[in-house]
Design goal:
The complex is a heterodimer of chains A (about 220) and B (about 220). Chain A is built from eight helices and no strands. Chain A is mainly α and about 220 residues long. Chain B has one domain (about 5-220). Chain B has helices at about 5-25, 45-65, 70-100, 110-130, 135-165, 185-220. The radius of gyration of chain B is 19 Å and the shape is globular. The chains are: A mainly alpha (about 220), B mainly alpha (about 220). Chains A and B meet through helix 6, helix 7 and helix 8 of A and helix 4 and helix 5 of B.
Chain lengths: ~220, ~220
C-alpha cells in the first residue's frame, strides 16, 4: 500500500515538475475542441455526443500513452528492484484515472462553452463523462504497458486499443444519450453495471497479467 | 491424438452429410428467409468454429504464460489464425446472405459490427506479434494481449446484442440465430453435422499449419 502511494506521488511530482506533458495534453484538448468548433459550429445533441466521445478517445490515447513509454529500460529495472509489479500497475492505473478525470471535466466544460449546450441534464452528463473517461484510461493504461514492452509507439496502442474499446464506447454513447432528453430510457442501470463490471475486469486482468509483461 | 486419421475422415464425412442434407434436405418455409435459411449450416457453423478456435487459442496462451513452453505459443497463434479464417468466412457468408434478405451486404447491424471488431482484434494480435523481433518476448506479450483482448471483448459481444435492436435472426436476444426459426429436421443437420464437421476441418487445417510451423522453427534453431 505504501509503495503504491510512493509510486503515485512520484508520478504526480514528475508531472508537477515537468509540467510540459500535462499542459501538452491540455493544449491538445483545447485545440481539438477549438478545431471541432470551427468545423461544426454548434451541432445538435446526437452529433455533440458523438464528437465528445471521439475526442475523449483520442485524448485518452495521448494522455495515457506516455505513462509507460516515458519509463526507460533502466528506470523500469530500478522500479523492479524497489517495488512489485502489482504496486507499479496499480499506481499507474490510479494516476491515469486521475489524469482522465481532470481531462474529462475540462473537455465537458470546453464543449459546453464552445459547442453549445444541448444537454438537458448537465450534471448527469458530467458524471457519465468522468465515469467513461476513467474507464477508458484503465484499458489504455494496460495497452500502453503492452506497447511499451513491445518497444513501440502510440500508434500501436491505437491499433490494439480501438477494436477493444468500441463496445465500451457504444455503451457509453447509449448511456450519455439519456442526458440529452427528459425521456427515461430502459436499461440505464443495466448499462452502468455492465460498464462498471468491465472496468473491474480491466483492473483485475491488469493486476494478473502485468507481472508477465514485467519480467524480462 | 492429432496424428490419428479417424477424426479427419469423420470430419469429411460429417461435412459431406451437412452439404448433401443441407442442400436437398427439407427446411421450413419462412417469409423473407425462404431457402436462404440453409445458410445456417455454413454461416452459423463458421461462428461456432471461430469461437471454439479463439477459446482454444486463449487456453494455449494461458498455458504458455504458466509454462513458458514456446510450443504452446505456436498452438495459440495457429488457432488464432484458424479462428480468423473462420471469422472472415463467416462475415462473407453473412454478407452474401444479407444481400438477399436485407437488401444490402452491410447494414451496420450490431452483430455484423461485433464480428468485425472480433476480427480486427485478432488482426491486431498478429500485428503486435510481428512487431516484436525477440522470440520469447513476442510469445509472452502476444499471450498477454490474447488473454486480455479475449476477456475484454467476448463478454461484450455476448451481452451487447441482447441490449440493442438487430435485424439478424434471433433479433434481440440470442447472439447467433433464432432457435425458433429452425425445426427439428434442421437441427439434425446443424448440430451433429455442420458444427462438428466444420470445426474438425478447421482443426485439420490448424494441425497441418502447426506441423509446418514446427518444421520451420526447427530449421531456424538448428
Amino acid at each position: 500500500m505504501n509503495k503504491i502511494i510512493t509510486l503515485l506521488r512520484k508520478d504526480i511530482l514528475l508531472e508537477i515538475r515537468q509540467q510540459y506533458s500535462f499542459y501538452g495534453i491540455l493544449l491538445y484538448v483545447v485545440s481539438t475542441i477549438f478545431v471541432l468548433y470551427l468545423a461544426m459550429g454548434q451541432p445538435e445533441g446526437v452529433v455533440w455526443n458523438g464528437l465528445f466521445w471521439m475526442m475523449e478517445l483520442f485524448v485518452c490515447v495521448n494522455a495515457v500513452a506516455k505513462s509507460f513509454l516515458q519509463e526507460g529500460r533502466g528506470r523500469m529495472l530500478y522500479f523492479y528492484s524497489i517495488a512489485g509489479a502489482v504496486d507499479f500497475i496499480v499506481a499507474k492505473l490510479l494516476f491515469n484515472m486521475a489524469v482522465m478525470l481532470v481531462m474529462s471535466s475540462v473537455s465537458v466544460l470546453l464543449f459546453w462553452l464552445l459547442l453549445g449546450d444541448p444537454l438537458a441534464h448537465m450534471l448527469q452528463f458530467v458524471a457519465m463523462a468522468v465515469f467513461g473517461g476513467t474507464g477508458l484510461s484503465l484499458l489504455f493504461t494496460f495497452l500502453s504497458a503492452i506497447a511499451a514492452r513491445a518497444q513501440q509507439n502510440a500508434a500501436l496502442i491505437a491499433i490494439l486499443g480501438f477494436p477493444l474499446i468500441i463496445p465500451q464506447l457504444l455503451l457509453l454513447m447509449r448511456l450519455s444519450n439519456t442526458a440529452f432528453s427528459d425521456v427515461v430510457q430502459g436499461g440505464f442501470y443495466q448499462i452502468v453495471l455492465l460498464l462498471a463490471g468491465l472496468d473491474g475486469l480491466t483492473v483485475v486482468l491488469s493486476i494478473i497479467l502485468f507481472p508477465f509483461l514485467w519480467k524480462d | 491424438m492429432l496424428h490419428r486419421s479417424w477424426w479427419k475422415i469423420l470430419g469429411v464425412a460429417l461435412l459431406l452429410y451437412a452439404f448433401v442434407a443441407g442442400f436437398i434436405g427439407p427446411v421450413p418455409a419462412k417469409p423473407i428467409l425462404n431457402e436462404t435459411i440453409r445458410n445456417l449450416y455454413f454461416h452459423v457453423a463458421m461462428w461456432f468454429g471461430m469461437m471454439i478456435f479463439f477459446i482454444v487459442s486463449l487456453v494455449y496462451s494461458i498455458k504458455y504464460l504458466r509454462s513458458g513452453n514456446l510450443k504452446h505459443d505456436w498452438y495459440a497463434v495457429e488457432f488464432a489464425n484458424s479462428g480468423l479464417l473462420f471469422g472472415v468466412l463467416g462475415l462473407t457468408t453473412g454478407a452474401i446472405w444479407a444481400n438477399y434478405t436485407w437488401g444490402k451486404p452491410w447494414s451496420n447491424d450490431i452483430k455484423q459490427l461485433g464480428a468485425a471488431i472480433a476480427i480486427l482484434i485478432y488482426f491486431a494480435y498478429l500485428v503486435l506479434r510481428n512487431s516484436i523481433p525477440d522470440l520469447d518476448k513476442r510469445a509472452r506479450i502476444g499471450a498477454v494481449y490474447n488473454v486480455f483482448a479475449f476477456a475484454m471483448l467476448f463478454p461484450t459481444i455476448w451481452i451487447i446484442p441482447r441490449l440493442v435492436d438487430s435485424l439478424h435472426p434471433g433479433g434481440m436476444g440470442n447472439p447467433a440465430f433464432n432457435t425458433k426459426d429452425i425445426d427439428s429436421r434442421m437441427r439434425l443437420v446443424f448440430w451433429p453435422g455442420a458444427v462438428p464437421g466444420w470445426t474438425l476441418l478447421g482443426l485439420w487445417i490448424t494441425s497441418l499449419r502447426l506441423r509446418l510451423k514446427i518444421l520451420e522453427e526447427k530449421k531456424l534453431i538448428s
